[in-house]
Amino acid sequence: MIGWEDVYKVVVAMVPLYVALMLGYGSVKWWRIFTLEQCDAINRLVCYFTLPLFTVEFTAHVDPFKWNYRCIAADALSKLIIAIVLALWAKCSSKGSYCWSITSFSLCTLTSSLVVGVPLAKAMYGQMAVDLVVQFSVIQAIVWLPVLLLVLEIRRAGTTDAGAVHVDKDLEGTINAEASSRPDFWHLMKLVWLKVAMNPNAYACIFGIAWAFVSNRWHFEMPSIMEGSILIMSRAGTGTAMFSMGIFMASQEKLIACGTSLTIFGMVLKFIAGPAAMAIGAIAMGLHGDVLRVAIIQAALPQSITSFIFAKEYGLHADVLSTAVIFGMIVSLPLMIAYFAILEFAH
């Protein structure tokens, strides 16, 4: 059962993030330290250096031979359900949007597991839950964030290749632009894969998990010179991401950058739709007991900070993602306790 000491541990984990956020906010809003061009450079530093090395660091130290692969399958099934629903919405609804489908997928599925999830999971269900939360976090880093990166590159390449492109209704190439032609599919994909191959976020996760398999199979540790080279930047990953978010907030006219209705929309996707899809996937894969409860609760964790960094870099609804991260972390503790109580009562 969660006690005040457990609540304090979660608060201790979260407060430093808001310190970094406020420093970023103040550096632009109050102290005028950075120009707009410098703010963009800071976000690119986070996107291409600190976050990839952070990914390498925590994926390289897991043991994939001890993973619960039924949980991984449940996670994949839940995300497939969400992707199908969003694809049908984008194709069949008059209000459907490819761009909003990308953002909605991020809101439903991508979580900040390591910051909030680990201390909460340990308080609720012990070390077993911690192991599962870390496992879900690694799978997110090596599978789902690269998938997000890929679709963002497809969107960017389509826009760049065709000039003024309206991509809200399809990857098939319906283009509404003056004096522009339909881009060749294979040329488009060539551009996309080239961009992805040049992005360190794509192969950081591959390197990290490859090292995890090799080191756990043959039982040797990473050379200290190599680990030190990774740690020197990776330790700044989460802090610089929150700092960049504070900078972004300061550049907006309103504190709630996306407005009240979109904030509520994001919270519903994050804390209701995501856990509901996970519950369906977990039950379908035969999960039960505390493992089922942990799977559902971790799906309701606050929004991934990395998803905001990608949204800012690719110019896609960064206001919505930043609001989801900030307010998600504020309301996450009481919501997680509510989920815990409901699931225990259902048991």
UniProtKB/TrEMBL annotation:
Location relative to the cell: Endomembrane system; Membrane
Assigned GO CC terms: endoplasmic reticulum; plasma membrane
Main location: membrane
Keywords, sorted A to Z: Auxin signaling pathway, Membrane, Transmembrane, Transmembrane helix, Transport
InterPro entries named in the record: Auxin_eff_plant, Auxin_Efflux_Carrier, Mem_transp_PIN-like
GO biological process: auxin export across the plasma membrane; auxin polar transport; auxin-activated signaling pathway
GO MF term set: auxin efflux transmembrane transporter activity
Membrane-spanning residues: 7-28, 67-90, 97-120, 132-152, 192-214, 229-250, 262-285, 323-342
Keyword rRNA-binding among UniProt keywords: no
NCBIfam families: 2a69
Role according to the record: May act as a component of the auxin efflux carrier.
Protein name listed in UniProt: Auxin efflux carrier component
Source organism per UniProt: Citrus sinensis
